[in-house]
Specification:
The protein is built from 20 helices and two strands. The chain has 504 residues and is an all-alpha fold. A two-stranded antiparallel ribbon has the order 1-2.
Length: 504
């Protein structure tokens, strides 16, 4: 079934643009302009998906499907599919894809063509993860994420980039190997039971696995996805990767790469293995809450501004894991919305830290203070995104957090109360970041700090607009999520509700 090739165009356009950028390695400015044009075109194509007839669905909750035989001997198809969840994440990916090109305009001055190739190749891999409906194709895109990020950190990162890159690769390869074993195992189990050897996500869920087989396969998938999220205690690669990555790399990590792990749990792990998933709910709740508190506590001790934001990212992801584990409509809506919110606010904070580092060549909090008087426009954006990160009502994070907590109190009041306590911790370290950066006397000798340039305002203004719009009117996103989330609940929710005592 090939209703359109538009999804393929959206996925592979960045990769083709990156290959074209390699041909301009002697013309850095032309390379930047080409990459920006490709990223903008991909964003426009993604936005165009919003204007499709919402009633013209292909199958169930799917808005678009591309499916064609690929390696027929092994039941492998080229399968892409778009529903409301995928659409929201595709829009986030293409939106941030434009911003990472803009934010690197003056920060990256060496091997410009190669940098933009890896940047755009990374976008293709993330889009493929969000759209693949064939498990083999999903695995290929999942693996493709590793190579661009390896080079982005390893070549254009900071002083300790090699150690951070090796750590990132070791964690990622471990998870990928486990997932490959699980993919092959699920393929063989399904084929032996039904006679149909396939990697289609639509058909793999029909296999009747024994409790032991389901538990082992689920554990392998979950561990691979938990590393990418990352779930405590598998998070240790992320602060190092964030600290050493260039600004664009940190935006991709926080805004997109972590979301592929959450999406994979939502789309693959829970629906395919509902009984094992139900048994794992207490563990996931415990790890999510520990991550929420632990990372927030560690953030309080950080003196490197970028490392502080990195740990704050882990803390926010812990709350999203709680929303996933509770598996009811309210918490799932909040978790997916919070994926978008986290992608916007944390990316914005990393961009601002990168701009400050570009100006003052330091990220130490001791070097800042009194910035409000020196650079009021930059400080205004910093305050806005800081307030959004701590969940100020009227800004985007508040909506996602309140949905997760409301659903948590309904399903398990104790979890809701503990989660609320974690939000208080987030409030403390964000206020410390704002206070020590923007207000009070400078901790060192006053330095010249220029305010934002028009290009930098063009990067931050769309993020600020999105933060405010989602905070004031999240209904369009929640409406897109309603039907596909209900479909996932119908697929696995009754099993999880019966075995994990969770209200669907």
């Amino acid at each position: 079934m090939m209703t359109s090739h538009l999804l393929s165009v959206i996925v592979f356009l960045p990769l083709l643009g990156g290959l074209a950028a390699l041909g301009l390695r002697r013309h850095p400015e032309g390379c930047r302009r080409l990459s920006l044009s490709v990223a903008l075109l991909d964003l426009l194509l993604a936005v165009g998906l919003l204007f499709r007839d919402p009633g013209a669905r292909i199958a169930g909750d799917w808005l678009m499907i591309e499916d064609a035989p690929w390696i027929e001997r092994f039941g492998i198809h080229y399968g892409l599919g778009l529903d409301g969840i995928s659409l929201v994440l595709v829009l986030l990916t293409t939106f941030l894809g434009v911003l990472v090109v803009l934010v690197s305009w003056t920060q990256v001055t060496t091997r410009v063509a190669a940098f933009h190739f890896f940047l755009l190749a990374m976008q293709t891999s993330v889009l493929g993860v969000f759209l693949a409906t064939d498990l083999f194709l999903f695995y290929l895109f999942w693996e493709l994420q590793l190579l661009p990020m390896f080079f982005l950190i390893g070549i254009w990162g900071h002083e300790d980039r090699i150690r951070a890159t090796v750590k990132f690769v070791l964690f990622s390869i471990t998870g990928s190997f486990l997932m490959l074993v699980a993919v092959i195992g699920l393929y063989l189990f399904h084929g032996s039971q039904t006679g149909l050897y396939t990697f289609s996500l639509f058909q793999l869920g029909q296999a009747s696995l024994g409790p032991r087989a389901e538990a082992w396969l689920y554990a392998a998938f979950l561990l691979a996805f938990a590393i990418k999220i990352p779930v405590f205690p598998l998070h240790t690669w992320l602060p190092d990767a964030h600290t050493e990555a260039p600004t664009a790399g940190s935006v991709i990590l926080a805004g997109l790469l972590l979301k592929t792990g959450v999406y994979a749990v939502l789309r693959i792990a829970f629906p395919l293995f509902p009984h094992a998933a139900a048994d794992s709910v207490p563990l996931l709740l415990a790890l999510g809450l520990i991550g929420l508190f632990y990372a927030a506590w560690i953030s309080l001790a950080q003196e490197d501004m970028k490392r502080l934001v990195a740990y704050s990212s882990i803390s926010h992801m812990g709350l999203i894991v709680v929303g996933l584990a509770l598996w009811n409509r309210v918490t799932l809506s909040g978790a997916v919305l919070q994926m978008v919110n986290h992608g916007l606010t944390t990316s914005a904070l990393f961009i601002l830290v990168g701009m400050l580092d570009e100006r003052l060549h330091t990220r130490q909090l001791a070097a800042f203070g009194g910035m409000w008087k020196k650079a009021p426009v930059l400080s205004g954006f910093f305050l806005l995104f800081g307030m959004a990160s701590l969940g100020l009502p009227g800004l985007n994070n508040f909506v996602g957090e309140i949905l997760i907590l409301a659903g948590a109190f309904k399903a398990n009041p104790a979890v809701g109360a503990i989660g609320f306590g974690g939000i208080v911790f987030i409030l403390v370290y964000v206020l410390r970041l704002i206070q020590e950066t923007l207000f009070g006397p400078a901790k060192e000798e006053p330095q010249h700090l220029r305010d934002l340039t028009p290009r930098e305002i063009a990067v931050l203004a769309p993020l600020a607009l999105a933060v405010v719009l989602i905070g004031l009117y999240p209904a369009p996103i929640l409406n897109l999520l309603q039907d596909p989330l209900q479909g996932l609940l119908n697929q696995a929710g009754h099993v999880m509700a019966a075995r994990a005592d969770v209200v669907p």
